[in-house]
Each structure stands twice: as structure tokens, then as C-alpha cells.
Amino acid sequence: MLITLGACPIDGVESDTDSSSTDASEDASGEPATAPTGSPTTVTPDMSDTSVDETGIGPTEASTNHEASTQNTSEDAEPTESTTLEPPDGASETTLSEGEAETSVDSDSGGYLGPSAGCGGTATPSFSGQIEVLGQSRTYLVDVPDDYDPSVPYPLLFGFHGSYDSAEGARFGYQLRERWQGQAFAVYPDGLVDPSIDARTWISRDLDGPDVTLVEALLDELEEAACIDRNRVFAFGYSAGGYMAGTAACILGGRFRGLGTVSGGLSPTDCGAQAAYLMHGLEDEVVPTSQGLSARDAWLMFNGCDPERSEIWGGDTRCETFLGCETDAPLVWCTHPGGHMFDGAYAAAAIALFQSLE
């Protein structure tokens, strides 16, 4: 489902557009110069090349069109056949008896962590939807896996909304649990309200600020209460949420395995290797394509990829998988011909990349 947002200032992003644009511009400090007026804009461009190929890693030319809306419609409620991959081998084979949660580092898996302390319980976990962080009450939503089994470690997916949106909007649009065939936890935090725009957003450039602290606190809470595979924790977001996904995966790199961003960028400048799926519009006037390219180049360096070697596919929507990257740190960079927009196929492609990791 295609979504375009009218004015979405992103923390720390300098816009390439002039002040007369209908999209919100920003001043030299990187703060929003104008607040949006009216409702988000919706359009129906031809996105006939945005389906995911048989590998599930990126869009190809063959697909069906998506009708425009400010939210995903029911046609995105379940992943299409081309976007579904089985979880990695052994994902559902690790079982623990009550009290047998394994929390040590597995030296044979590149230093990744095993099942969380919440494994081996007897009941489906419940969450209050509120957590105290740095003296503030923060809200969030959690989707629990279908037919949850407390002896099976499940992936954990963070979904960060864009500016002017909410946890509920991100859940409706991203459908992260559903795109993992119902066999993953998905947590959707709410950003704080920025008085300058009177809307929720993320302060992704504050690398030790309240939003990074929130993510860390949610990780602690979910890993304690539920059976989480700490080797498969991922971040995904659109626009300002894309920046937050990058910040979370970088600053808390020892606890994340990968990230997916749509029309996002990257605030940190020193990160460890992470699997990354990055999608950006070539006509994006809210988060300029240059910001996406900067993020791509940063992950090329962090992941040890060869910038001169890649596999390319697609038509108007073009994807590039870089070669020579570190093990379990693939980098996929995609562009589409449109502007600042979200499509459910992009979330599906990011999930498929995450599922392809061993």
C-alpha cells in the first residue's frame, strides 16, 4: 500500500528544497522551519515495479499496482506469496524447558546471543503498554506471535513510525509480525511530541538521549518477559522512523542484527556491521536522496562491502546487493522513481532479507 506524507520534518536532515515547497523545509540548525498544514497528501503513481522477487530481497519489475491511501489496506494484511520466506533453518527447532533459558554468548555464531531470560516460562506474556524512561511515561504496542510457545525463541522486530504518526499507525502500515508469517514479536514505540511541530517524532541524532534509552528499556523488558531469540532482533522505520531504526541498530549494535529503512538516513558516524535494507525515492523532497546515499555509503564501510562489486536488478525500481560484505551483514540499496512515500512491499522485502540470515 502506497503512502505519501505531505510535510514530515526529520530531526537533523537538511532539505534540498526551497522554502516555497509544499513539503516542510528546515532551517540551518536542522530543526523544522514550518509545520504541516492539512492532512497527509495521497497520490496514485504507477508503482508497477515494486513487488519482491523470488529471493524476497528486493523489488522487481513484475507486480501489481497499489491503490494510494494514508494507511495500508486489507490487501496488505497478509504478505503475498512472493514475499514469504520460511524462517531460517532451525528457527523453530530450539526449545527450552522451564527455567532453562540460555543467556551466554555463542562463540561459534560470531558473538551473537542466544535465547532470552524469558524463555522456558509457562504463559503468554502480557505488556502494559507503558514504561518509565528517564522520568517520562512512554507508550508502546506489542504484537505477540500466533500460537505463542514460551519454549521457542522468536525474532523481535522494532517498528518506528514517521513524524506526525504514531505506534498505532506504524503497526497498521508495517504489519511486521504478519510479514514474518505471524511467528515474531513486533514492538511499536511512540515517539515524544515535539512542541515545534505539535506531533510525535524521534530525536535520532541524540545518541544517548531518551529515545535510545527507550529502545534499550524495551529490549530489557521484552527479553525478560518473553522468549526472544536475541540473535534475531531487527529495527525498521519510515522517514524519521528510518533514522531512528538506524540509530537504534548502530548505538545498540550488540543487541540488533539488522535494520530496514524507507526514506531514511543515518545520524551516527561509527557503527558495527548490520544487515541493512535501504529504500529511497529519487524525487524525495522531504528526506533528500543524498541523505539515503550517505547512509548507504556509511553501511558500505561499516559492513566491509566492496563498493565496486554488486548485483543489480529491477526496472524503474532498481535494487543493488553489494558483494564482499562481512558474513551476515548484507547490504541492499534500492531506489524508486517517486517521492517521499511508503509501500508495504518495502517492509516485506526488508523482512525477507532478515529471514534469509542464518
Structure commentary:
This protein has 358 residues and is α/β, with parallel strands linked by helices. The protein has a single domain (2-86, 101-355), classed as Rossmann fold (3-Layer(aba) Sandwich), CATH 3.40.50.1820. Helix content is 18%, strand content 23%. The protein starts with a strand and ends with a helix.
Structure described in brief:
The protein has 358 residues and is α/β, with parallel strands linked by helices. It has six helices and 16 strands.
Number of beta strands: 16
What's the N-to-C terminus distance?
Answer: 29 Å
Tally of individual domains: 1
Helix content: 10-25%
Any idea what the shape is? globular
Q: So, CATH architecture?
A: 3-Layer(aba) Sandwich
User: What's the CATH H-level homologous superfamily?
Assistant: Alpha/Beta hydrolase fold, catalytic domain
Return Rg in Å.
19 Å
Summed up, the helix count is 6
H/E element sequence:
EEEEEEHHEEEHEHEEHEEEEH
Main attributes of the structure:
358 residues, ten-stranded mixed sheet, 6 helices, Rossmann fold, single chain, alpha/beta
Task: Describe the SSE topology.
Elements: E1 2-4, E2 51-52, E3 59-60, E4 130-133, E5 136-143, E6 154-160, H1 167-174, H2 176-179, E7 185-189, E8 192-194, E9 199-201, H3 210-225, E10 228-238, H4 240-251, E11 258-262, E12 275-281, H5 289-302, E13 306-314, E14 318-323, E15 331-336, E16 341-343, H6 344-355
Parallel strand pairs: 6-7, 6-10, 10-11, 11-12, 12-15
Antiparallel strand pairs: 1-16, 2-3, 4-5, 5-7, 8-9, 13-14, 14-15
